[in-house]
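Please go through this protein, sequence plus structure tokens, and consider how the sequence yields the tokens. Keep your notes short.
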Amino acid sequence: MNCRDREWLQCQYVERRLTCKQIAAICGCAQRTINQRLVKFDIPRRNNGWGWENLKAWRERTPDWAKHSRKKRHPLSNGTKQKLSLIRRGSGNGRWKGGITAKIRGIRRSPEYYQWRKAVLARYDSTCQQCGSLEHPQAHHKLCVVDYPDKAVDIDNGTVLCEDCHKKLNFTTNRRVEK
């Protein structure tokens, strides 16, 4: 009864088909020790019963399997919702940028901005400068409007991107440049 003996361990695990827990109880050691010995002695491990095939079979047997995988949540009270709403306003919001929304909105709604957009699209023939697509062209600022509001309507600060490339650029990179 020594888990350090390869032949004995293989006999118990492979031939007698005892579990690691049962072998650990016989040897008086931890189940983890038995697992480590099986790996060390290159004894092939049995599936623990929750392989992908078994999971698929369980899902087929259990039509409401999604209910088992989710924790039950209690709905928030109206008072709690109101408190959370107040906490997440202004500087408590993770997207707070120092109260610049009104300034940016003013720039983007100005007639100069619309002229800038048309000029940038015309300059590059409404062709995406990354993938060459002609679908859904959008004018894009090379330098962020938040950091460089004076360059918001500068044609040299603009390029054309399709909608997909624009989303990828805005959501995967940080366009803000340190001054």
